[in-house]
Design a protein that fits this description.
Chain lengths: 331, 291
């Protein structure tokens, strides 16, 4: 049970500045997801919280205690690595119990704890296997078990699902969510997959180039992106941006565009566009069209009888449009 | 001809060179030694078959047993000391950034230096005062002077020291490569899990280095069992003295073959050495490789 506070954190490697003056307040029991493009400093931030990386300037507190100079083991945290970092020469039981043995816990207690975790994660039958004898998903569970078994105050995840296939990823996502409800512990989760971010997070932290672009609930960042970067980063397919002459950019999500003939909107704006590509996805159809030389992606309901090269009339739902100023900030 | 066949032929062309080399220069003499060991032969005269007489003579020869004992002393002291030393140095070097390359070179240079030159420098170190550096330092510290190469008990360790030192550079480089190959994330996970330095060493580093340790144990065991250069160059007249106190098996073989020209006897000892090497290597591979 712990809040995590980062105040005015900076990090540089030699002359290269990776994170600059970052402030972040993570509440107790919160599920925070850090997202951002590759190289924006997510892992670096997480590793600084873990104590694996020195901070260049600023202050990190966990549970109201300043931890700047504490070793990782004294911070009461656990971390799940992207490559799991399971010890290959130890079996699953030894892997999970490693932290408890390091803390000199009694054998019987270790046994209880390992079995409890193995039960929750459904890996009881695997305890005697070596990591090399496990599937990717099983390894992932063991890595989580190793983190859970110590009942840490804060869980750190660095892209824990990125090595799994799409289907397994979806089911593990649900399990992590469930795990968070069960253990009621602060979790900080790094990913560059926005679906993971949207589905898991209580609050999302969107980062770019070492700076926080926006912090908010999934709905907040989706419905009211603070700037053009966030607007473009969250949502798939990406938001359409239409530049006007006065420097203002209009942003409209593909799902807020309809075929004019079937739309009945109060604040609709009609445009004529030439269809370039049609991508039927089953439940919906993606339409990529050009209007005035601007590419527009529309996500339309159902299967639609339109072919490339045709001219269509589209309606943009202006009540859901976003406006961004010259500097990219929301207006 | 299929691509597979062409490739196989090319591969065999390359492999055949070392194979022919090994057959002519290694396997054939080894097998020949077996047959010579059953004869009495003075290198120029006629070989006379005498059965196992050479081996029986060896069995009853106290000097042979002393030499065998010396050889094992080199092995049992040399392997653990050199491995522990080189591991400690490699492990420390792995942690430092500053002057890393320079330090590594310092340790590697002895490996590249000729044994003869090195042996003579060490011989000089071991002299009594005022020539010998070591005794000079000992004297200044108020410690009793040592006889080193002139003592029957101190001579063997005194010869062993430069032998260990000479091989250290190689072992350090191999250890460092092994250490580098251990993913950093294991250490990070262990640190977060709360493991101290000693536990990390015992439960992560050493098990991960197992293949490296097996390799170095086997290689250095063979090296110490065949120790020769240092003894030959550091002892009076290359005798392995005083009173055979430092004489190893290979030197004993050399003396039999090229001073007394008892080729049958020398071959018999070679066979003994071969069998010892074979068994120790197999034993080490079996024991150390098992999980
Ligand atoms: N040891 C280092 N030395 C120098 N620069 C580094 C070091 N580690 C990271 N960086 C730089 O810091 C920046 C942030 O790296 P980081 O690993 O935090 O990115 P990330 O957001 O986790 O990206 P990804 O999604 O690809 O994992 C990158 O530009 C990277 O090149
Ligand atoms: Mg990363």
């Amino acid at each position: 049970m712990a809040s995590v506070t980062l105040s005015d954190i900076s990090k540089s490697y030699g002359k290269v500045s990776v994170i600059e003056h970052l402030d972040l307040e993570i509440r107790d029991k919160e599920f925070i997801v850090l997202v951002g493009p590759s190289g924006c400093g997510k892992s670096t931030l997480l590793r600084m919280i873990a104590g694996l990386e020195d901070i260049t300037a600023g202050k990190i507190s966990i549970a109201e205690r300043m931890v700047n100079n504490l070793e990782p083991r004294d911070r009461d945290i656990a971390m799940v690595f992207q490559n799991y970092a399971l010890y290959p020469h130890m079996n699953v039981y030894k892997n999970i119990s490693f932290g408890l043995r390091a803390r000199k816990m009694a054998k019987a207690d270790i046994d209880t704890h390992v079995n409890r975790v193995a039960e929750i994660l459904d890996i009881k039958d695997l305890l005697n296997r070596k990591p090399s004898e496990l599937s990717g998903g099983q390894r992932q569970r063991v890595a989580m078990g190793r983190a859970m078994v110590r009942n840490p105050a804060v869980f750190l995840f660095d892209e824990p699902l990125s090595n799994l296939d799409a289907k397994l990823r979806a089911s593990m996502r649900a399990e992590i969510k469930k795990l968070h409800r069960t253990v009621e512990t602060t979790m900080i989760y790094v990913t560059h997959d926005q679906v993971e971010a949207m589905t898991l997070a209580d609050r999302i932290v969107i980062m770019d180039q070492g700076k926080i672009q926006q912090i908010g609930t999934p709905m907040e960042v989706y419905q009211a992106p603070a700037n053009q970067f966030v607007a473009g980063f969250i949502g798939s397919p990406e938001m359409n941006f239409i530049k006007s002459r006065d420097g203002i950019t209009l942003g409209i999500r593909p799902e807020d565009i309809y075929l004019a003939e079937s739309a009945t909107l109060d604040k609709g704006k009609n445009v004529k566009a030439v269809v370039e590509v049609v991508e039927p996805l089953g439940a919906e159809t993606l339409l990529i069209a050009f209007y005035d030389g601007i590419k527009i992606t529309a996500k339309l309901n159902g299967l639609i009888d339109i072919e490339a090269g045709m001219e269509v009339k589209l309606t943009l739902d202006m009540s859901r449009a976003h406006l961004f100023g010259k500097d990219g900030e929301r207006v | 001809m299929s691509i597979g066949k062409k490739r196989a032929i090319t591969a065999w062309c390359f492999i055949s060179v070392p194979i022919i080399y090994f057959i002519l220069v290694r396997f054939y003499p080894t097998l020949d030694a077996f047959s010579i060991s059953l004869t009495d032969w003075n290198i120029v005269g006629k070989k006379t078959y005498i059965g196992f007489d050479n081996f029986i003579r060896l069995w009853h020869d106290p000097v042979f047993w002393q030499v065998l004992g010396n050889t094992f002393e080199y092995l049992l002291l040399g392997v653990p000391i050199s491995l522990i030393l080189s591991f400690i140095i490699a492990h420390s070097l792995d942690q430092v950034r500053f002057g890393h390359g320079f330090l590594r070179a310092c340790y590697f240079i002895p490996f590249l230096t000729t044994a003869v030159a090195m042996a003579w420098v060490w011989r000089w170190f071991y002299q009594p005062v005022p020539v010998g550096m070591i005794n000079l330092v000992l004297g200044q510290l108020g410690i009793k002077q040592l006889d080193f190469l002139r003592s029957t008990t101190e001579a063997l360790p005194a010869v062993l020291a430069p032998a260990i030192w000479a091989g250290l550079g190689f072992q350090i480089v191999i250890f460092m490569a092994g250490l580098r190959a251990i993913p950093q994330s294991y250490y990070e996970a262990a640190k977060i899990d709360g493991a101290g330095a000693f536990r990390i060493l015992r439960e992560i580093t050493l098990p991960q280095l197992r293949p490296t340790i097996v390799f170095l144990t086997v290689i250095s065991s063979i090296g110490f069992l065949r120790i020769f250069d240092q003894v030959y160059n550091m002892t009076q007249e290359g005798e392995g003295g005083p009173l055979n106190a430092t004489r190893p098996l290979v030197l004993h073989i050399y003396k039999a073959a090229f001073e007394r020209f008892e080729m049958g006897m020398a071959a018999a000892q070679t066979v003994v050495l071969f069998v010892i090497l074979l068994f120790i290597t197999i034993f080490q591979l079996k024991v150390l490789k098992n999980d």
